Amino acid sequence: MIYPKMYNNFPYLLNKKTSKAIIIWLIILTIALISSIIIIFNYKYNNYKKYFGYIKNIDNSLLLTFYVQEEEINNIKDYQLLIDNQPFDFKMLSINNYLNGNNLLYEVVIETKLPDKYLIENNIIELVFKTKPTTLYAEIRKEFEI
Question: What would the pLDDT profile of 56-88 be if each residue is shown by its tens digit?
């Protein structure tokens, strides 16, 4: 049977001469696309939120104080506190409004068992909060609110 030369004709497409370079590039692009999709949906990693806090003397006890935006307040409880890459347990004692120019921030006071080298009043400490594991797909959805 003779088939007309149409591009939607399957036997014609099988017998058509195509450059090997084009076929190789298509295979490489397909493999790269499939690999990217697998990585986006399956690779888990942790985000880290950094803040600067200071030691504050409140009622004769030295407590850690730092400022966050409103969106982060509810999530802070679920994070893990790291100071100099060492994990610390903490308990949130109070959250107060703090107006910095036009920005509304919240002053968060936490209690944690810090080593004595940090327990100096007004000592500035870099706080790192480790979030729960997430995927790139979840971060994209959260960013674009899908």
Answer: 988 888 899 999 988 888 888 889 999 999 999
Lookup result for tokens 């939607």? 8
Q: Which domain covers residue 79, as residue numbers? A: 45-144
Which pLDDT tens digit goes with each residue over 94-125? 998 888 778 888 999 999 998 889 889 899 99
Helices 20-42 and 136-144, axial angle in degrees (round to 10): 80
Q: Are residues 14 and 68 in the same domain?
A: no
What distances in angstroms separate CA 122 from CA 21, 30, 49, 64, 105, one per listed residue?
A: 66, 57, 22, 9, 19
Asked if the structure places residue 1 within a domain, the reply is no
Task: Using the structure block, give the residue that is written with the tokens 């697998």.
Answer: 38
Q: Rounded to an integer, what distance in angstroms lies between the CA atom of residue 100 and that of residue 109?
A: 17
pTM of the full structure: 0.71
